[in-house]
Amino acid sequence: MNLNDLPTSTPWRMARRAARMNPSVIREILKVTEKPGIISLAGGLPSPKTFPVAEFAAASATVLAQDGPAALQYAASEGYAPLRQAIADFLPWDVNPDQVLITTGSQQALDLIAKVLLDDSSRVLVETPTYLGALQAFTPMEPTVVAVDSDHEGVLVDDLRAKVGTGDDKARFLYVLPNFQNPTGRTMSEARRAALVQAAAELGLPLVEDNPYGDLWFDTPPPAPLTARNPEGCIYMGSFSKVLAPGLRLGFIVAPQAVYPKLLQAKQAADLHTPGYNQRLVAEVMKGGFLDRHVPTIRTLYKAQCEAMLTALTREMAGLDVQWNRPDGGMFLWVRLPAGMSAIDLLPKAVERNVAFVPGAAFYASDADPRTLRLSFVTSTQEQIAAGIAALAAAIRDLQGS
Amino acid sequence: MNLNDLPTSTPWRMARRAARMNPSVIREILKVTEKPGIISLAGGLPSPKTFPVAEFAAASATVLAQDGPAALQYAASEGYAPLRQAIADFLPWDVNPDQVLITTGSQQALDLIAKVLLDDSSRVLVETPTYLGALQAFTPMEPTVVAVDSDHEGVLVDDLRAKVGTGDDKARFLYVLPNFQNPTGRTMSEARRAALVQAAAELGLPLVEDNPYGDLWFDTPPPAPLTARNPEGCIYMGSFSKVLAPGLRLGFIVAPQAVYPKLLQAKQAADLHTPGYNQRLVAEVMKGGFLDRHVPTIRTLYKAQCEAMLTALTREMAGLDVQWNRPDGGMFLWVRLPAGMSAIDLLPKAVERNVAFVPGAAFYASDADPRTLRLSFVTSTQEQIAAGIAALAAAIRDLQGS
C-alpha cells in the first residue's frame, strides 16, 4: 500500500484551550499599520532612538572576547548570576538575587505564573481595563478572568473585596500594573497602593505586580512598588524592553520562596533558559551605572512626545466631546470618544486617513467600554503625532457625519 | 491597622499541574558534576570547541551596524523572514517559509506543541526511552504519557497500533526522535521510518518529529526525515543548538497549515517572539554556506570522541558483562549494566571516583530499566573520556564488591 492511497489529511485534534486562543488584535492592527505612509499611534513599540546600539556593539565584542564559549553554551535556568545580582541591586527594596528568575521577556513571566498558579476555571482578577498580553498569557490555562472595577488610580479595593471569591473559587491572584498602565497610562496613587496591599494581605490574596514602565516617569518617580510593601505576598515582574531594547527579550521575576521553585521548574520546561549571550550583554551594558545616564534621556524624549500629543489633542479635538488623560510617565494615553461612538467603527475611518490606534475593547476582560481607545506617543515623531491626531479628529468628524 | 499586624504568610495556592512539575534529574546531577575535578559524561553540553565565536563576533558587529534598531525592536512572532527562508532552503524537502515558526530553542517548540495539542488526560505516545525534556514540557498540560515499546531502531510499529487508542482516548500524537536519539544514540532505519509513517497515516496519528542531532552523522547521513514523507501529518522540530551554539536559544518548528496558526498564537502568548538580534546573528552566520564548512568539523570531532569512548569501554569493561551500543552520530551512547545492578545505585560510587553520568531511569515514561545509563561523549576531551570510563569500570567493581 502506497502513502498516496491513504487519506491525505491527518486529523489534527486540538486541545480545548486552542479554541480560546486567538490572534492578537493588536498584532492584526499592526499589520494594517505596515501600509506605507500610515502614522501608527497603535503599537507599544519603544522609540528606536532610545536603543543604545553602540553600547550593545561594544558589549557584544567584549562578551564574546572575554567569555565567548560560556555565553554560547547551555546555562542555568535561573539566569546569569551577575545579571540576577545587578537586578537585585537595582530594585528599590531588599531583594536577594536568589529570588530573581530571568525570563525571555516579561511576557514569559506571565506564561510561567499562569502555569504555576492557574487551573482551568480558577478565578483570576485583573484591572479594568488591563494589559492584553496578560489576558493572552493566562488564556491557555483556561481560567475564569474577573475584572475588578477601576478608576483613574487603578483597582477599587471595595470591588476587589467583593470579587475575591471564597473556598475553591477564591481568586488565585490579582494581576496589576500600577505604573503608567498599559493601556490607560494611569498610575496608582500612594494611598491606593497602601490600601490595596493591606486588603490583599487581609484577604490572603497574592498580587502579581507588573512594572515594565516604572522607570519612564516624567517629573517624579511613582510611589514604591506593591511588592516592596509585602514581598512574601507578591510576585514582581520587570523588563529591560523599555529601558534598553525589547528585541533582546529580557525580563525577570522576583518571587518569594513559596513559589520560586515551581516557577523555576516551569521555566526549565518552557525554554531551558533565557539566552546567555543576551543576559551577558545586558549585564555588560549595565556596568558602571549606564542605566542612570541612559534612562533620563528616554524620560525626556517620551515626556516631550507626550506633551506634543496632549497639545495636539487640545488643539484638534476642540468641540468634539472627546476626553483623555494626562499620564505621568510611560508610553500610552487613554481616550474616550463621544457618547454613542465606537472606537472599532472609528478605526477603518482613521486608517483611511492614514492614522492607526488600538480600540480599547481589546483590553477588557469583560464589559468593554466601546468608546475607549489607546494612543501610543513613543513610536512616532512629534511631527507625526501632530499630523496623526489631526487625522484622528478628522476621522471622528467623518464618523459623526456618516 | 499595620501590615505587621497581619498574617505574614500569604497562602499561595498552586495549580494542580505544579504538583507534577519536579526539578530536572539531569540538572540536579549537573550540579553535582560542578564539583572540581569531576569528569562529566552526564550532560548533553556540546563541546565549546565547536562554537564559532569569531563568526558570532563578526556577525554581531555587522548586524548592529547595518540593522541595529530593527534587531533591537519588537518583531513578528513568526520569526525573522530571512532566517525562515534560510531554514526552508536548508531542509531536505519542499518547505514553504510560511510553515516555519522560530522558537526560543526547540524546548519551546515542545511547550507550544503541548499547549496546542494536549488536554489534561490526553493520550500522548513516546518512545521507550525518550527525551526527558519532552516529558517535562508535556507535563504541565497533564497528559497521560504512554510509552511505545522500542528496539534498537526506535518505536515498534505493532506496539504503536496497540497503544494508539480510540475515540476520545485516541493519542493526540507520537513524539519521536529518529536520529541519534537522546538518550540512546540509536537511529531509526529506512525500513522502520517507512513503516512508521505508513502506520501513522493509516491510523490518522500525527507525528511530532524532533531532529536536533540529525546533522551530526559520522560516516553517512541518516535516512530522510519522517516529515519529508508526509508533511501534512507531521510537525518537525529543529535546532541550532548543536550545529552553532545552544546559548542563543534558537530552534524552529515546521508545521502544516492545520496547526500552524494555533502554534503561532501560543508563541505570541508565550514570549511574543524569539530575540530578533539572535535570529539575525544566525541568519548572518549562515550566509555563504557557513554550515556546510562548519558542521563537518563537528562531525569529525564527535566521531573521534565517540571512538575514544568505544575503545575505552572495550578496554575497561572487559569481563564486566556490560553492554553498549555504537551510535552512527549524535552525542550519546547507551549502556546496560550487569543483571541486578542499578544505575541509580552506581551513580554515588562513580561520583566518588570523579565521574558522572545520567541514570537511564530518568528517560522512561514508565517501567524504567534500572540497568541503563546514558553517556555523553561530546563535552569531555578524549583523555577525560578514557579516564572517565576507567573510573566508571572501577565504580562498577566497587558496587559488585559491596
Please identify the structural class of chain A as seen in this structure.
alpha/beta
H/E series of chain A, N to C? HEHHEHEHEEEHEHEHEEHHHEEHEEEH
| Domain unit count of chain A | 2
**Largest beta-sheet characterization of chain A:** 7 strands, mixed
CATH fold-level name of the largest domain in chain A: Aspartate Aminotransferase, domain 2
- Determine and state the CATH class of the largest domain in chain A: Alpha Beta
What would you say the CATH architecture of the largest domain in chain A is? Answer: 3-Layer(aba) Sandwich
Please name the two chains that share the biggest interface, counting residues whose Cβ lies under 8 Å from a Cβ on the partner chain.
A-B, 99 and 99 residues
Strand neighbour order, sheet with most strands of chain A: 2-10-9-8-7-3-4
Terminal CA distance of chain A: 64 Å
GO molecular function (chains A, B): transaminase activity
Domain Aminotransferase class I/classII large (chains A, B): 52-391
Pfam families (chains A, B): Aminotran_1_2 (PF00155)
Organism (chains A, B): Acidovorax lacteus
